[in-house]
Amino acid sequence: KASLWIIDHDYADRLNRLIIVFPYACKAQLRGVSICDPSESGEDLIRRNFLTLEELDYLEANPCWQPYYFLDIMRAIIAKVIIQEYDTGNTLLLPKANKIHEKLFKPLDQAVEDLARSMGECISVRTSGLPKSYDVAHYAFFCTYFIVAPVVWSTQIGWVTPILAFPTASITLALISMGSSLVDPFGSDFVDLPLDKFCECVEAQISAIQRRSKDDTLLHFAEFSTTE
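Below the sequence we write its predicted structure tokens.
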């Protein structure tokens, strides 16, 4: 939407860069750290001209839920685009004289709202977690079972008991640990979601859309392409 409807390239590029930065900020937030943290992508985003040093310094000096900081900037840019179209024109694809122009603000703002809602749901998953009694109950059952079971097994299978008990206990313990880890799927463990790949995918898609929007062929096909 930003690349197609906002024809002012400065505003469109700025908004697209923020959209690219947003998932990286979400990743850091969901891992409980700042995007400024050395383990996260802040410095790399500066090197690739998606984020400025001034912005990173501001975020480091003013702790906040950083994804929402970037969403607020997106909203501010959309508001500026709408205002500038009324003041000077040549900002939106549909000029202010067009009656449909007034309808553009809602879908643009709704897109930002959808991002905010999705992020809020992810934060809820991370913060809610499970009560401590969940792990305590499972580990208590595990210990009780694998203390008593080998004694019972030994009367039937004798010396094979340790060979059977060890892999069985190991697999059960691994499943319990995996279940506890999946409650918070946003870390960097093997069983966690591949957030880095997700961020890279968003960046690749936004960059492709941005390049395509600057090619006049897109609008040409929209106007003249025909199968006749």
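The chain is about 70% helix and 0% strand.
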